[in-house]
Amino acid sequence: MEKVRSTSYQSDNVYKSMGEDSAAIFLHNSNDEDLILITTDAINEEFSKSNPWSAGFCSILVSIEDIYACGGYPLAATSILSSDDEMVRTALLDGIIDATKKFRVPLVRGHTADNTKNISVSATIIGRILRENYISAGNAQIGDKMLIIADFDGKVAKTNKYYWDTVTFKSSDEIMKKRTFMNKLAEYHYANSSKDISNGGLFGTMVLLLKYSDVGAKINIGNLELPDILLQKGYTQKEYSRMYMTTAFLITCDPHYEEDIENLAEEYGLNANTIGEIIDSNSIVLSYQDEERELWRL
Asked: Which residues form the domain of 161?
């Protein structure tokens, strides 16, 4: 990332870039109020090979979440897939197409490599947002509350115990309504920072947000809530913190807005869970009852 920042071509048309879930670009110049969002993700080869439909679906899902994480609206997607196996290519594409229908984003361009042993799939999604509503991943403020916003109506994937599926079995209307929460959060200016809880799990996501914001966090482990289904299956907080959550965002806010966010989340069928606060430090500190321990030096 530092090499890109220091050696690649730079432009005044870029509003936000490296470190953000979605980069933001001025369409004409820095006086623009409307921003174009862009994000891209690739799915690893092992997953693409063993579960090609899921890999295709997730290639769209992960980039969709990046757009919503900053409060934006997806506009269109492009995709690249590769395999010399026609059945694998078909499954990858079917997953992509099914995801575009779920998330109502048109697939407008793509590329297929059919003469390679490599099996891969990636997607790029563009979106839009007003500049004044953009939620940065690097704007957590000392004294902010840290919340997990998550859909507790889900199930554990059959192929991976650390994948919390909240989308494949639901209607497009339902999953789009839940994501509208992030649009409202941005419009009301409730959040100072945000990231979607992705493949790195809760703490992996947290590390990135804190590093980019140059702050630390104190997390009260006793406050970490789990979906009832996971509790019934015997999941621990440690296992839960490792999960890819699909519909989940880690946000920070001024304490004044904490109750407003909780009420908004409930309105959109999501669970709001305050787990800690932002501190003037370069570490993540875990607290439980009267004990504290440094988990991570940033």
From this structure: 136-297
* One domain for residues 156 and 286: yes
**Model pLDDT for residues 160-175, shown as the tens digit of each residue:** 899 999 999 999 999 9
Q: How far apart are CA 53 and CA 253, in angstroms?
A: 37
Of 58, 70, 65, the residue nearest 23 (C-alpha): 70
User: In Å, what is the CA distance from 217 to each residue of 106, 282, 294, 296?
Assistant: 39, 8, 10, 10
Q: Which two tokens stand for residue 215?
A: 């702050």
CATH number of the domain where residue 231 is located: 3.90.650.10
- DSSP class of residue 40 equals E
Q: Are strands 120-130 and 73-82 parallel, antiparallel or unpaired?
A: antiparallel
Q: Give the global pTM.
A: 0.94
- Please report how many Cα atoms fall inside a 13 Å half-sphere around the Cα of residue 237, on the Cβ side: 11
Q: Which two tokens stand for residue 87?
A: 């059945």
Joined together, the tokens standing for residue 77 give 């997607």
Residue matched to tokens 């050696």 = 7
Q: Counting runs of H as helices and runs of E as strands, what totals does the chain give?
A: 9, 15
